[in-house]
Each structure stands twice: as structure tokens, then as C-alpha cells.
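> run fold 4-hydroxy-tetrahydrodipicolinate synthase
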Amino acid sequence: MAEPLFGRLMTAMVTPFDDQGQIDHGAATEVARWLVQEQCNDALVINGTGGEAPTTSDAEKAELIGTVRKAIGPDVPIIAGIGTFNTAHSLELAAQATEAGADGLLVVTPYYSKPPQDSLLAHFTTIADAVDLPIVVYDIPGRSAVPVQESTLLKLAEHPRIVAVKDAKGDLASSGRVMAQTDLAYYSGEDNLTLPLLSMGGVGLIGTSTHFTGAGVSEMITAHADGDHARALQLHRELEPVLTGVFATQGCLLVKAGLAHKGMINNAVRLPLTVASKEQSDVFCGLLDAAGL
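> ok
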């Protein structure tokens, strides 16, 4: 199997904040390096939902890309989240991310507006026509209210700059049909479905729990690619409590609790999010400790 453009493992990195609610660029540097050097990520997603992109300004988004680029160097790809429910604003963010040094763009299905499929096709292709970077379509109807239907994905796959899908639809049969008919690189958007998606032709994971499980997930993906399915299954089962447990509440809340537990960041988020409860944090951090993570 050919190596996909961005590698096989990416983490949607959280955005650390200080006690005043400003981006903590020192902590962001530490987390980015941790993800690459210790958690075996091939690329990083910056300014995604897990990075609280809805509550960071455009200027903050550009600054964060610059910080992460300095932290990880020129050879590790950065995929910038630029999707909004406003196509014109998404185009502005795409241009900004390109200038800031991104290597690819993550474009989520427009949320709240509930556009029909022909409108989705126009949204994604308008962005793809206007940029020079490859695009990952983020299909997550649980947040956007609208799935990207198979017929729409087949049309999007014809565009030379639409190269991949972050698949958080939870419909493996549908994803399998699209993979069978296109060259789109499918990344699981649900950590605990990575191995099933791999078995159907997926290439890897854009993860949340991979702030902690990255090394193990990377080994699982490699084992599967090498045909060692028993080892891949063993690793999936060992990691499954954390792969699933990170979503006991909004994922970035537990990631931040876990990173704070490790002393890497301040446990702070921006409204409308509030930090995970002590009970939620204790349960998740207990899972990390039990797994040796």
C-alpha cells in the first residue's frame, strides 16, 4: 500500500491556554514536540475542533500555526483547520493558513446551516478551486448535522486537491463503498474505529486520544499494514479503554485534563466549554495511569 500524503497518524492538537485565557505558546511548543517525538505522529492538525477553533481568533490561529511550525520543524506536515459555516470566511482562513506555513487544510462540513448536498459540493469545491494545498474533508454529522453523502464524496474525489476524508460518520459500510470507488485516503475520525476502518481500506487515524496513545496506535497501524493482524488486534484491545474513554465528555476537555495531570499544560478552556469535572478527570486520568500512559 502506498504511503498516504500526510502519513498514517495525525493528532488534532489541543490549544493550551494560560490563566488569563490567552494561548500559551510555550505549552503549545511542548505539546507539539511531544506528539511528534514521543507519540509518533506523522503530521499534526492545528486549529481543529479539538483545538477549540470556534473560540480562537483568526490572528490567534495564524500565530499558533507559526508556533507549531517552529516547534516541529519543516518536515512534519501541518494540517490547518479552516472550515466554518461561512464559505467566504473559510477562504480567508485558507489563505491565511497557507501563508502561515500549513501543508494541508481540514475542511469540516458547514455546521448549523444544514446545507443540502448540492450546496455541500459547491462549498468544498469552491474552496478547493481557490487554494493550492491538498484538502481533507471532515465528515462529522454529529457536529455538523449533515452527512456528506456517498454520491457527494464520489464527486468530490474527482477534484485533484481533495485527497482525503476524516471520517467521523460512524457508517463503516458507506465508507467502505466510497473507498472502493475512489482514491480518497480515509482517516478514522473516531479513535476506537481505527482498526475496523483499516480493515476496509482506511489509511490511519486523525485522533484525540493520540495525545497519549499515539505510539501504540502507530504500532497498531503498522502491524495491520504489515499483515500482523493478531498484533494489531492485541494493541487495539489494550488501548481501547483510552480510545473510548477520551470521549466520555467533549474530547478536548479530557485531553487537557490528562495533559495537566502530566504537568504539560494548564487545564483551561474557553467558554462555552468548561473544564471536565473532577470525577470525569479522575476517571480518565485513572485510565491513562492503568495503561501506563
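DSSP finds twelve helices and eight strands in the chain.
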